[in-house]
Fold these 2 entries.
Entry 1:
Amino acid sequence: MFCGIYKLIIQAIVYEPGWGRTDLHTYTMDYGEVIELVDDNTGASGDITVDVDTDDMDNKNIVAIRIKTKDLAMYGDTKLNLGEKDIKDHKYSIEVDLENGSTVEYSPSNWPYESIEFTPTKSGVIEIDQNTGTIHSFEHDETISTTVVATAKNNGVKASFNVTVVGGDYDFIGYLPVRPFSKEMEDDYKYHFDRDDQGFESDDQENITKVGVGFVDTNLLTKSKDLSKGVTVENDIDGQYLWIVTRRPIQYAANINAGVNSNMIPTFTIPLTTP
């Protein structure tokens, strides 16, 4: 409840003969905004000394760097920001120990401590924004990895982690005249595909002879590097099925009760428009 930015104002009352009726002279010094109190692990703790003349903090150098996840994985031509999860749900996060005894999470957007430099050991795989720590992967035909060395600029303290860029893989989405299961299997609870609640379907779908994922031709689908960024696909043929082929399992495509009766957040939504 006390989080926020605080100013430092010093008021000194000095005895000075002949000053006013009380011989007391009041001096006020406004040093402006000095500290910010936060409620997360991005803030320092313990004994902290702030030099208000240089707007700097004493003992702010790094004595240890810890990479929370040693191995990160990305698809080509994508970005991974600090605090986000990679394609394997591993969080990209860095903790550092400071000279003043504090342990803080590295947050470049609000970082008054010693800076960290990132150096990939192999060129052409990724690049890292030194100001934000964001990793940008390059597109490759084959999967390739590189080690990244994180170095404290003043003390030279180092830590390393690996980044693997998955090459040649894409997600696909689009409409095909391919049924997911045969009519005899679609009422099976194991497949979560109950025909009884599909009243909007037409009889034409009963005539589709191609059944099963083996008939899905990804060359006929729209290719996407990241389905979460939004992809537009069109269909003007009744009875076709929407197929989504991904490189990672889909936990759920949409949840109409998200935020109401569920703690599930949809991975993506499918807005429909009239052609």
Entry 2:
Amino acid sequence: MSDIPLVLPFADDRCRDVNLSGGKGASLASMTHNGLPVPPGFVITSAAFADAVDAEALIRHIQNEDLEAARQVVSQTQTPRELIKGLYDQLPPGSVAVRSSACAEDGDDASYAGQQETYLFVDDFDTVMTRVVDCWLSFFSERALFYRLHKGSLDDIAMAVVVQRMVDATKAGVMFTVDPVTGRRDRIVVEAAYGVGEHVVSGEVTPDYYSLDRKGAIKRSRIVDQQVMSEPELAQLVELGLHLAELNGSPQDIEWAFDDTGLYMLQSRPVTTV
């Protein structure tokens, strides 16, 4: 597999291959390619894991439902440290997020959202390397394997990892370019809270809720305390969200964040509930 890249920056066109970069990584690379505001980063490709892991032993342990042995195999897998260091050193200074990116995730019928781990505000390279292995391990947790058993194949071990500059978010959340409950395509739904978006995605906080038309006008809202989003911010979100839906040819479930400099797109995947 020596001719297959083990690490790829988002700007490399090969990074848009979901089989190399996983759903999350390929989405970030595609958004970067299309000029959308994406924090810089790179992908440790599925080839890096496949090249180093004892795949035969790993699959055997999974099929025998011996998760402890499977995770032991993963924990002993070597990362391409020097290649990762080369791209890590090219990122702007500051913390990074280390995010799992399974090759089966973010499809039209299964998002795999929340099944693997994300680590935020990682401050040094040695911890990045530890978190890369932790992301690999999360693909073989009991929860993740149970999900794959019902959505795909347990023999699927293709796993990439995203390393991306952290957004020091003042507000963040999710946006659906179609109402995910009613299926109305003339409505955009935004959920927003102060701070990083993981709090919204994980359900740790109760976010503000906005139902908007396709021009960004608020049609219905539920404000928890002080309104998080201004009308211009909502209009900007809707414009970029609809652009992403058009680029992908389907309604999108989008993670986003604002910092002091503006809006960033952190992930985009198909809405699987309509």
